[in-house]
Amino acid sequence: MKRLAISLLFLTAISLASSIQQAYAQGKLRFDIDKEQKTFASFYIRTTSWLRYSELNPGSTIYNEPTDSYTDFSIRRFRFGVNAQLTPKLYTSLMLGGNNINIHTSKTFNIHVLDAYTEYAFSNAFELGIGKSSWVGLSRWDIRSSKSLMGLDAPLFSLNTVDKTDDIGRVFGIFAKGKAMKFDYRVSVSQQLTPPQTTTKADADFAYHAPRMKTSGYVKYQFLDEESNKSAYTTGTYLGKKSVLALGAGIMYQPRALWTDANAGIANAAIDTVYHALFHWAADIFYDAPIGTNGSAITSYLGFYQFDFGPNYVRNVAANNIANGTIASQAIYNGNGTAFPMVGTGSNWFFQLGYLLPKDLLGKDNGQLQPNIAVQYANWEKLDDPMLVYELNVNWFFKGHDNKLTFGYQSRPLFHVQANSEIKSYKRLGMFIMQYQIEIN
């Protein structure tokens, strides 16, 4: 079954690749308001589709049927956006869309307002905005572009409160941004969403009460070419179009964000609620540059993240999870489907490296390949072993990020609670994905 699924991925890729160049045409969905082209409105539509074969965690079920592996189709992301420079200083952005349209959600999927904000540029060094947006701090990858990712998917650990106290990473609030000399900064104060209802226990979880404001910021120094700060979404790979070396650092803070019960586990004891602040800091470095004159380029990223969600916080996450149930007697610490301990209190390293191969490698007009790797290595306070996830990917660019095909493999660890209550890693499982992305803009 595993070989059949992988063969299906490969044969589908060949069929799709042979017709992409003929089927794709890029429009120009930009309309200038004035003759000088200083004001405009632009539109885009983007979909990212998955064909996937997954080895599922022990105990996983799909509609009550025990399942240890599964092949599925889905739409990982759908986006429709409008950006408008209404005056030389006034800019507004609207993004609609959603994630994970699959067999569980296709009949109930709703289009969300993801971004809806307006900003005013007092100067290049100070712009002020308000609305619902992804203008938050901490690291480069908290504000990454899903369109220009180098890896198979976003490093979701960086969206550390995703769908807990935010809406796919977006929040309501006010933000400031700007550039001065070689520095680029952003600062935000945001109103968090009410988290899912929880009860206090020994390990920290998001507190179910009126959310406090969260403050975050990120600043980077750009040694070579400067990156645009027009959008909140930083570029994952420039495909040799820029020479960028950026060193950055950021913080994130929210008081009374999580809670625990100090008397948890004590028989007949009254609940003693203790609140904990969310406090994270991070530092990272990003390098992207062309190599030679044949179209080759290198892209690399290294980031260190120190997360504090309160004592023993761990969250298992599975992007676009195909499993929707668990056999309790077979369940492991990871949970069901393709979940693993992605976020937690503790330290986390993330590394990416990619190499864009020469333009003429596949012949004229046949696109360009970019093999790349990604590694997440974390020491979560709750776990007794390190958490290591790695990805091996190849991007096939037909028209940059507007038209690309990705083949990827992700390997994740399985954790189980031992008889002595230690949580140890004991096995690895994998997931194969073929991803196709197209944007009309």
Overview of this structure, please?
With 441 residues, the chain is mostly beta strands. It has a single domain (2-440), classed as Porin (Beta Barrel), CATH 2.40.160. It has one helix at 2-23, and strands at residues 30-32, 40-55, 60-62, 65-66, 69-85, 90-101, 112-123, 126-133, 171-180, 183-191, 205-206, 213-222, 244-261, 273-291, 296-308, 314-317, 325-326, 340-344, 346-356, 368-380, 387-397, 403-417, 423-440. It has a 16-stranded antiparallel β-barrel with strand order 2-5-6-7-8-9-10-12-13-14-15-19-20-21-22-23. The longest helix is centred in the first third of the chain and has 22 residues, at 2-23. It is globular. 37% of the residues are buried.
CATH class: Mainly Beta
Helical content band: under 10%
Overall 3D form:
globular
Describe the main β-sheet briefly: 16 strands, antiparallel, barrel
Distance between the termini: 40 Å
Derived from helix and strand composition plus strand pairing, the structural class reads mainly beta
The low-confidence runs, each spanning 5 or more residues with pLDDT under 50, are 8-27
Question: What's the pLDDT, averaged over the residues?
Answer: 92
Strand content: over 45%
At the third CATH level, what is the topology name?
Porin
CATH architecture: Beta Barrel
Please tally the β strands and state the result.
23
**Gyration radius from CA atoms, angstroms:** 22 Å
Whole-number tally of structural domains: 1
Number of helices: 1
Relevant CATH superfamily:
Porin
What multimeric state do the chains show?
A: single chain
- What sequence of helices (H) and strands (E) makes up the elements? HEEEEEEEEEEEEEEEEEEEEEEE
